[in-house]
Design brief:
The protein is of the alpha+beta class. 43% of the residues lie in helices and 24% in strands. Helix 4 packs antiparallel against helix 5. The N and C termini lie far apart (48 Å). GO terms for molecular function: metal ion binding.
Length: 173
């Protein structure tokens, strides 16, 4: 990794944007800070400015991503118990999808959204492991297993393949 130096803040901000455009993975704020020889707080400020300028920079637990809007998204309703979380996420990512979040309806708070951000089997395993070791319950337990996922795919054909695989899994369950 190399440092870009402090430089002009506008130039740095657009270099960050270019890095996010080219990246196939989330980039941590700390990593960007090291590249540019600035603090993580400076990177947070740069990201906020890029957002103000209309760029859709998404914060995930694994770092920043640029949402180019070129992918297909669907919100899909499902119902199952906690024991099927791994299978459901695995089916989606194995068929080329990315699970952005889980959405449940709470009787007092209304809609609750939790970010998931998984797009590989490794991500699924890390997520399920974190859920198991965190001593917490998954959000789907609030709603008796009924929940929504925002799923993203590179194209409509892949999305249809994902939806068909989920449907097939539900039928065979």
């Amino acid at each position: 990794m190399f440092a870009f130096g402090g430089g002009d803040f506008v130039e740095r901000r657009y270099k960050i944007l270019e890095i996010l455009k080219r990246s196939k993975r989330p980039i941590k704020g700390k990593e960007l800070a090291e590249m540019f020889g600035v603090t993580r707080q400076v990177v947070v400020s740069d990201i906020a400015q890029l957002r103000e300028e209309g760029y859709r920079v998404v914060s995930t637990r694994d770092g920043y991503l640029l949402d180019t809007g070129e992918r297909v998204r669907r919100v899909v309703a499902v119902k199952h118990g906690a024991d099927e979380i791994y299978d459901e996420l695995k089916i989606i990512v194995e068929n080329g999808g990315r699970v952005l979040d889980v959405i449940v309806e709470h009787p007092i708070y209304g809609e609750i959204i939790g970010r998931i951000d998984v797009e590989s089997i490794d991500d699924v395993e890390k997520f399920v492991s974190a859920l198991a070791t965190s001593n917490t319950k998954p959000l789907l337990e609030i709603s008796g297993g009924v929940h929504l996922h925002t799923i993203e795919a590179p194209d409509e054909q892949t999305m249809e393949k994902i939806l068909e695989a989920i449907k097939k899994y539900r039928i065979n369950k």
